[in-house]
Amino acid sequence: MSKNESMYKISKFAAPEFIFGIDSIDYVKRYIKNFSLTHPMVVTDSGLLSASWAKNIFKQLEGIDIRYSIYDKVSENPKDYEVEEISKVIINCNCDSIIAIGGGSVIDAAKAGGIMCANPGSIRDYEGIDKIVHPMPPIICVPTTCGSSADVSQFAIITNTDERYKMAIVSKSLLPDISIIDPKTLTTLPKELLIATSLDALTHAFESYVSLGSSPITDMFALKAIRLIFETLPKVAKDPKNINYLEDLMLASLMAGMAFSNASLGMVHAIAHSMGGYKDIRHGTCNAILLDSVIDFNYVYAAYRYDKISESLGYVLEDLNEIDRKKILIESIMNLKNKIGFNITLKDLQIKESEIDIIAKHAVNDPCMLTNPVMPTFEEVKEFIARNI
Amino acid sequence: MSKNESMYKISKFAAPEFIFGIDSIDYVKRYIKNFSLTHPMVVTDSGLLSASWAKNIFKQLEGIDIRYSIYDKVSENPKDYEVEEISKVIINCNCDSIIAIGGGSVIDAAKAGGIMCANPGSIRDYEGIDKIVHPMPPIICVPTTCGSSADVSQFAIITNTDERYKMAIVSKSLLPDISIIDPKTLTTLPKELLIATSLDALTHAFESYVSLGSSPITDMFALKAIRLIFETLPKVAKDPKNINYLEDLMLASLMAGMAFSNASLGMVHAIAHSMGGYKDIRHGTCNAILLDSVIDFNYVYAAYRYDKISESLGYVLEDLNEIDRKKILIESIMNLKNKIGFNITLKDLQIKESEIDIIAKHAVNDPCMLTNPVMPTFEEVKEFIARNI
Ligand SMILES: [Mn+2]
Ligand SMILES: [Mn+2]
């Protein structure tokens, strides 16, 4: 390290251009033209093709005579070999761009696939931060969940099938050229998924707020996202088709995305990636399960940050000591969970005693752990999982 | 307009990558390398060359053996002919990029100059929205004021010398590749300018909040910027060298910038551009002078939006009728102005009766007027100016 350190915090910020609003998918054709694209590869998954808003996109492409190919076999947690296949298909079909239509998995796969069209070797070589050299072809994202917001983040999460954990690839060039964000795409998302992905967004907001990489701007996004999700989830649980609630969830997800994309994440994701990777469990579910116990673990190291979250949720902490403050925050999450009927716990995942080692090992090496309020030791993570399963 | 309109609001958002923080200008060399630039044109103005942070930039360039040229004759309100000259100098010196170091004027000039390297004709041809075709060479911005935030906006304001008014050129391709935002650059800004530009930022925040082009995200930026400026300006007026206050002003300006860049502006700027253009008056001063009387004019058309601004400043409006609510907001601005010793009024600008017509004519045609809460008629603008001079 050079001659003398000073302690002012410097923060970077990057976000893609996006267009937001109900019926904004009517703009797909507009950007195809603006970017003068001729042959996009539509990366999606089969369950979405029957939705009315999806048909509407294909009609737009045909409406301006654009030939397109479709790749629709992306799995729940995209694997490294799927990424190879995608990049191959793109090159073989001579596509000059990508349209990614789907949730986190689809978009991560599409982004990783795009990257591997322009970078050599395999996607594993680019695990970590800022390792990508060449940009990918133009890519348009159409998110259909309100959780992972991979459409505005510099992250791609791909499962490494050999060692069965999720790799985090972080780089600015994973940002799409544009993201078209239309709440209407959530009207066909089953309630259960709607909830799981919203809890994912909530975790992004929590983790980026207490992360060591936070900045005033990501703080703003994170807090706003937390408030919106706390207000809207209970209502949406009662009324899952209400377009106004879906708009708020989408907005919350967008902001949580821009927050974690620039502030990074923490221990919840570090464990969720390794546990999710190892056991092939839905990502949002892992997060929702781990969130309150990670807060329990992290609290003492960033009390005053977690306190700010509680205060902006309207709790008055003035005369409470630290233990009560922690309790309040954790309970507010548990109330939220059972108000919306989410009551899976770590026990329900049947994690066997023998799997804890390997899960903990991957967790401590996950890049997300670097910005956790504290660097837990290998032992602590093991014991942390053991205490909760 | 096509067959049937629906009323959901769609909003676009674009922002450049930026890096923010005290001492962040130490990263200039890093981005020169990342973008692998070899010969930047440094566009600035002479008063800045003697500052310690400025020397530090040049040393960084020399430290990595980068040749650079300097153009430092940008005037307070850059004129169309200066833009021609800049684009010429860039081409003649074979520069492959631009480093813009300065306030709004410098950056607008540099951006417009860059644009004219890649687009034919004169800058006048690109007045209005979305008229630019080709992107400009890579450009790095280093803002040195906390007002216009041209470094993160899709605007360039160039004075049309024939008809003596300011043109607004609006396009996504006016976004720089990166903006390096360091509050330390404000330590050499004289107090008077510091205040004028902060009031400019305040106006950006006000106008983008009540603009017809506002969105939840720009709302957030605008409100936060307004609070920060109301809190910090009075303190900075007493202590103009305090680095912590300068940081807050810079942050406020950044956010106000991203707000107006995506929501556009309104009547204050429409008149400030034409009045400022016609009389060659400092931009921030015009805005600061016009802000409260434009609120007086606009209030009835967007009462509940202005009310939200008052409420977030901590005023309780519950039992007040509309006249008092307006009064409260206007007074809070006037208090701010005389707390910081800003007491110039329109009268001090000696605008002659005979100049009103021409000023009003340009104002109603300014693109900023399109998103004003109400479209004033030519008559109303004349009468508005007459009433206040
Ligand atoms: Mn996540
Ligand atoms: Mn301005």
Description:
Two copies of one chain form a homodimer. The first copy, chain A, has 389 residues and is an alpha/beta fold. Chain A has two domains: 17-186, Rossmann fold; 190-388, Dehydroquinate synthase-like, alpha domain (Up-down Bundle), CATH 1.20.1090.10. Chain A is 48% helix and 11% strand. Chain A has 13 helices and ten strands. Chain A has helices at residues 28-34, 52-63, 80-92, 104-118, 191-210, 216-238, 243-263, 267-279, 283-298, 303-312, 322-339, 356-364, 378-388; strands at residues 11-13, 17-20, 40-43, 69-71, 97-102, 128-129, 139-143, 155-160, 165-170, 178-181. In chain A, strand 8 and strand 9 (165-170) form a beta hairpin. In chain A, helix 3 (80-92) packs across helix 4 (104-118). The radius of gyration of chain A is 20 Å and the shape is globular. Chain A binds chain B through residues 6, 8-15, 17-24, 27, 172, 215-217, 220, 224, 251, 254-255, and chain B through 6, 8-15, 17-24, 27, 172, 215-217, 220, 224, 251, 254-255. The complex binds manganese (II) ion (2 copies). One manganese (II) ion (MN) binds at residues 148, 200, 204, 269, 283, 287 of chain A. Chains A, B: Keywords: NAD, Oxidoreductase. Chains A, B: Residues 195-387 form the Fe-containing alcohol dehydrogenase-like C-terminal domain. Chains A, B: GO terms for molecular function: alcohol dehydrogenase (NAD+) activity; metal ion binding. Chains A, B: It holds the Pfam family Fe-ADH.
